[in-house]
Amino acid sequence: MRSTGAISSAQLRELEADIRSELARIERSLARDAQEEALLADSSSLRVASGTASDGGLTVTLTGRVHARHAELTEALRRIEDGRYGVCGHCGEGIAYGRLLVVPEATNCLECR
Ligand SMILES: [Zn+2]
Questions:
Q1: What is the pLDDT of residues 90-113, one digit of tens each?
Q2: Fewer Cβ in 10 A, N or C end of the chain?
Q3: Are 62 and 81 in contact (CB under 8 A)?
């Protein structure tokens, strides 16, 4: 261990694999949503049956959140490539491995959260 809180390169590779599989999962679910929306738009009778304003709003909100997570995870991968990953953006200390396992896109340590 180099210093307290710093993650090893093996841990970094593990986190990178986690981030990549989570990104793949999000991309699959977004692709499925887009396909379902296209099917709904094609079928006017189905749209009348299920088309309430609140349903549409919920879908948009959920998709927006998924898009935001996707952007954060993509940004985390970029930090891994730059060698800036796992460092608190506020105090510059290493972010604990346990925290990164739970929140791989974290940019602050627990104290600065
Ligand atoms: Zn910090």
A1: 999 999 999 999 999 999 999 998
A2: N
A3: no
